[in-house]
Amino acid sequence: MPVTGRPKVVRTIGFLLASLPLRIFAFVLTLVTMVLGIATTMLWIGIPILIAATSLVRGFADLERRWAGAMLDAGIAAPRRRPHGPGLLQTWQARLVDPVTWHEVNYVLLAFPLGIVEFVAGIVSVAVPPFGIFVAPRIGAMHAALTASMLGPNRTQQLEARTQQLSDSRARGVDAVEAERRRIERDLHDGAQQRLVAVAMSLGRAQLKLDNDDPSAVRELIGAAHADAKLAVSELRDLARGIYPPVLQDRGLDAALSSLTARMPIPVDVEVSVEPRPPAPVETTTYFIVSETLTNITKHAGADRATVRVTRDDETVVVEIVDNGHGGASVRPGGGLAGLADRAATIDGVLTVVSPAGGPTVVRADLPVRW
Q: Which residues, other chains included, contact 363 with Cβ-Cβ below 8 Å and sequence gap of 6+?
């Protein structure tokens, strides 16, 4: 996973200063156990020592990934390791030929002298604030990039993970489209189709009454047919709005979401800042995530107020819907939130839900503007 930009100044300086004791401990312990294990391998006692050494190195590497992630804003995924069979000998053999093991060993050994340089840079950053403001973040960014290259997944693993993500996204997108098709078919069958059948029946009965020269009954039946026709038109209009609202295409997200929230039974505050205008698939996905989330809020959350905030940067449109309801919402298979996650996945987006008991509930979607 790529490094997420220049880290914050204070956290970076803290990272430069606080990392050295850990680096010294990791360097000494790793070097001693590795040398001792190699020296005693012929006596077989060295094999469990080397396994312990590689386990220590793995623990230090995992700690470094989390430490760099917390302090340097570097999201570094763990690489995929070579599987091994049962028993100490097979474990040692698998780790011995696993490139990940040696990348982690090299990192732990390199991190000690690097940590000395970074510690000095941290002291200078405290003593000379301009150095800390302008130089320390760049040092932190370079360290995060080094950590990602040595402790993160290699290029092949990244491509495999990306391929799997796209495959899953495509499958979820197909399921979401199929579910949407079934919904439209059900709405047509249960709504407008029934109204139009009633219109046809009323007109047929009116024709019979007309043949029998009964104008009052004809007038009544035509009135009923007219009412059913208006209801059918209204339901078709609502269905069309549910597929793609015209105001979204004509005036964009701000007007579409304002129109949507104006029809909600609870007050909804709306803030939209998405200039330049995102691609149509992103707008459509954003609109329906907001629409369906607000519908769920009014039905299930017990909230009396909600907030919708939509922003964008160069890469992502971020959608946040917050309500003051009783909380407890979660993404369950087959549930409404799972459907929203599937809809977001169709354009490689991610939906997250934070809903502690007692509220508030935050539904957030990160939707890329390029894919």
A: 289, 293, 319, 320, 321, 322, 329, 337, 340, 351, 352, 353
Terminus-to-terminus CA distance in the chain, angstroms?
16
Structure tokens at 130: 């301009």
pLDDT for the residue 337: 76
Whether pLDDT at 142 is above 60: yes
Residue corresponding to tokens 């294990």: 37
Three-class HEC string of 248-293: HHHHCHHHHHHHHHHCCCCCEEEEEECCCCCCHHHHHHHHHHHHHH
Q: What is the largest CA-CA distance in the chain?
A: 114
Q: Could you report the per-residue pLDDT of 343-363, keeping only the tens digit for each?
A: 787 787 888 888 888 878 889
Q: Do the strands 316-323 and 350-354 form a parallel or antiparallel pair, or are they unpaired?
A: unpaired
Distance from C-alpha of 269 to C-alpha of 255, rounded to nearest angstrom: 13
Tokens 């957030």 locate to 364
List, in sequence order, every beta strand (DSSP E) within the chain. 268-273, 306-312, 316-323, 350-354, 361-368
The pTM of this model reads 0.50
